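It is worth pausing here to work through a concrete case rather than discussing structure prediction in the abstract. The textbook approach is simple: state the sequence, then state the predicted structure, then interpret. We follow exactly that order.
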Amino acid sequence: MAILLMFFCLLCAPSLGETFGEKKKRAKPHEYGNVLIDNFSPQSEMDPVIFPHWLHRTKYSCRLCHVDLGFVMQAKENKITENDIRKGQYCGACHNGKESFAPESQDASGGTTRNCHRCHFPDNSKLKSDFYRFSKSMPKERFGNGINWLMAEEQGLIAIKDSLPGISNMTATFKGPEDSSLPAGESNIPNIIFSHTKHAVWNGCALCHPDPFGVEKAAQEYGMQEIFDGRFCGECHGKVAFPSLDCRRCHAHGVL
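Step two, the predicted structure:
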């Protein structure tokens, strides 16, 4: 009986572990991390933008967009306009015809082609097929979008850029703190061995400090409920980085 009960708990844990007592719909792998941008689309009678974090993540660090380019980490709070993009702000820092496609481009006959449809589209069917084609060759993860991004970067399967000329103000390489052991608060759960090095590859320092974690060791106290509520680690994990469904992904006997 005990064995059957243990099997049942393991089977149900992923679906029950998203919050304490509140079950949320789990996004499919190709949808995980996508952001709907529609602050001004209805007024312009345009389809909204479906922003795929996974696609941009194959090329750029999180720090580049959320620190250098100033994207706040809350959906619909950036209030991006087409005029902003044409002036080289936000998406326009890359979508300028040099780094990536621009709002308009010249076709073979010398005419102008508007590229609105490449971001404004009614559904994510193309993104879906593109994602599964890309993910086939990536190292696997159990939850989120099913890709182990740290391993993909370490194996050289993706090469992320962390700066843009004329925008990023790069300084000398900073040697971060040593790995930290974060107490689990439960006697039967391993502590978290937190790697500053691995997080710094994608986030730098400014994405976490001084907000939300402060700059002093153990300056902030938080628990799993805060993370499930989208605070502290939950600002990334559960939205774009892997979710907190798999306890072993963080609470493990090794560096994560």
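Step three, interpretation. Confidence is low (pLDDT under 50) at residues 1-21. The two ends are 35 Å apart (CA to CA).
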